[in-house]
Amino acid sequence: MSEISLRIDGESVAAKEGMTVLEAARSAGISIPTLCHHEKLEPFGGCRICIVEAESRGATRLVVSCVYPVEKDLVVRTRSPKVDRIRKTLVELLLAHAPDSPELQKLAKEYGSDRDRFEKEASFCVHCGLCVRYCAEIKKKNAVGFVDRGVRKEICFIPEIAARECNACKECFPLCPTSYLQACFVLTEALAFPLASAGG
Amino acid sequence: MDKARIDQIVDRHGGEASALIQILLEIQRENHWLPAEALKRVSDRLKVPLARTQHIATFYKAFSLVPRGRHEIHVCMGTACHVRGAQRILDTVEDRIGIKAGETDSELKFSLETVNCIGCCALGPVMEIDGKTHGKISPAKTADVLNGYK
Ligand code: SF4
Ligand code: FES
């Protein structure tokens, strides 16, 4: 694999072909905020928090760094007034769904997001897909999936699989940026297999 | 719908996971809705995780996870039909079969939906049943048409 050199925040960074801009930045110790990214999982590009400015051949574009592959001589800016403004709004939108998420609050502080800018519609899940993808890609159990679409999209445990697998695993719990995953699991458990978990 | 029939449909598609949507569409067409057992059977046969099948079955509006009637009624409420009295057509249908738009009657005979334009405004007001278009329809004729369905 050939080496590709690019500039990130003024620093020259050497990356391998096929790497994403996010991976290249992290390998050079430059941090870019992420929500839906997980090192062990396939790139997803769902939350857009990792957006950066990328300049090549004179044109500057906004790209999603966790899915954008490195290019030779690309000039990346991980922060700029525009990038910060976009992140600020994205966090505000997500806060309407999960106002008390610690992860979102940290980002809100960094980017000056107003927690109450948008009317609350506390669905708690921010659709990062970490739980669903972790269960499918790493554990290969598919105990939890998405259902429906758009504003009605939500996660849903498959009771038969969850009853068998989840109590011994729960590895997805700490991945969730809100507490919705745990809540959804507890609810499924209470409705569908209360005895299995009580050891009965 | 029994397992054997589902297997037949799956086999016709060579048991290919890539045919998942086609298979679900065929079951939907024949059975008018997708029961949980059908989703499970299809998932098992295609070796597609149930979570994925469920996501697809809930994603597209063409699929229903609740029982649907043998006959699908669509009453057009688009602008052209609206000004030509679509509301009275809808009222008549609701009255005759005793359900509201979005519902299915208890004998699973009819499911009723409103749509926003069927694309034949010149025929308004329009009602479609199982794909057959009934144009320039009056409330009285609506009742007649409904009586013709078993
Ligand atoms: S439940 Fe949590 S981890 Fe799962 S998609 Fe929603 S926010 Fe992400
Ligand atoms: S981390 Fe890149 S889109 Fe979520």
Spell out the CATH superfamily of the largest domain in chain B: Glutaredoxin
Number of domains of chain B: 2
Report the CATH topology name of the largest domain in chain B. Answer: Glutaredoxin
Low-confidence stretches of chain B: none
Shape of chain A: globular
Largest interface: A-B, 14 and 8 residues
Helix content of chain A: 25-40%
Largest sheet of chain A: 5 strands, mixed
- Biggest beta sheet attributes of chain B: 4 strands, mixed
Unreliable runs of chain A: none
Overall description:
The complex is a heterodimer of chains A (200) and B (150). Chain A has helices at residues 21-27, 81-97, 102-111, 130-138, 159-165, 180-192, 194-197; strands at residues 3-8, 11-16, 51-56, 59-64, 75-77, 144-147, 154-157. Chain A has 200 residues and is an alpha+beta fold. With 150 residues, chain B is α+β, with helices and mostly antiparallel strands. Chain B has helices at residues 3-12, 20-31, 36-46, 50-59, 79-83, 86-97, 139-147; strands at residues 71-76, 110-115, 127-129, 132-134. In chain B, a hairpin with a 2-residue loop joins strand 3 and strand 4. In chain B, helix 3 crosses helix 4. The longest helix of chain B has 12 residues, at 20-31. The relative contact order of chain B is 0.13. Chains A and B meet through helix 4 and strand 6 of A and helix 4 of B. Bound molecules: iron/sulfur cluster (SF4) and FE2/S2 (inorganic) cluster. Iron/sulfur cluster is lined by residues 125-131, 155, 175-178, 180-181 of chain A.
